[in-house]
């Protein structure tokens, strides 16, 4: 399969080349970053109320004074689905003064 020539397309192409079957569902983690723990916690609380089946973890980042909210969804990692989900998380994280910082597959 060919993917668009952007970061998401390149990551999917690399996964496919590594032998990951992208035609089946995987646990896909979307990363949101925040400068304040209270902002990150507010997003976690929002997701607990509005997406109770989503796995969400609040963890300190490697960088000081940065907090990660890792949101895991089981989904087929198609290009369109990844791009759409990242856009949703970008809008949601912005409401809590954070931003989306990419995604990955738990392999």
Could you explain how this protein is built, in words?
With 107 residues, the chain is of the alpha+beta class. The chain has a single domain (22-105), classed as Alpha-Beta Plaits. The protein contains three helices and four strands. The chain has a four-stranded antiparallel sheet with strand order 2-3-1-4, covered by helices on one side. Strand 2 (55-60) and strand 3 (67-75) form a beta hairpin. The longest helix has 17 residues, at 79-95. It is elongated, with a radius of gyration of 14 Å. The two termini are 20 Å apart. The mean pLDDT is 95. Pfam families: RraB. Residues 6-104 form the Regulator of ribonuclease activity B domain. This is Regulator of ribonuclease activity B. It comes from Colwellia chukchiensis. InterPro entries: RraB-like_sf, RraB_dom.
Provide the spatial order of strands within the biggest beta sheet.
Answer: 2-3-1-4
- Detail the poorly predicted runs: none
Average pLDDT rating: 95
Class per helix and strand makeup: alpha+beta
H-E string: HEHEEHE
Gyration radius, rounded: 14 Å
Largest sheet descriptor: 4 strands, antiparallel
What's the CATH architecture name? Answer: 2-Layer Sandwich
Give the tally of β-strands. Answer: 4
SSE map:
Blueprint: H1 7-17, E1 26-34, H2 37-50, E2 55-60, E3 67-75, H3 79-95, E4 99-105
Antiparallel strand pairs: 1-3, 1-4, 2-3
InterPro entries: RraB-like_sf, RraB_dom
Protein name: Regulator of ribonuclease activity B
Domain Regulator of ribonuclease activity B: 6-104
Short structural summary:
By secondary structure, the chain is an alpha+beta fold. The chain has helices at 7-17, 37-50, 79-95, and strands spanning 26-34, 55-60, 67-75, 99-105.
């Amino acid at each position: 399969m060919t993917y668009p020539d952007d970061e998401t397309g390149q990551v999917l192409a690399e996964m496919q080349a590594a032998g990951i079957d992208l035609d089946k569902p995987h646990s896909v983690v979307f990363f949101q970053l925040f400068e304040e723990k209270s902002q990150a916690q507010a997003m976690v609380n929002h997701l607990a109320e509005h997406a109770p089946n989503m796995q969400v973890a609040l963890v300190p980042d490697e960088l000081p004074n940065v907090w990660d909210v890792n949101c895991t969804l089981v989904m087929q990692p198609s290009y369109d689905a990844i791009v759409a989900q990242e856009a949703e998380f970008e809008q949601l994280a912005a409401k809590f003064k954070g931003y989306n910082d990419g995604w990955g597959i738990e392999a």
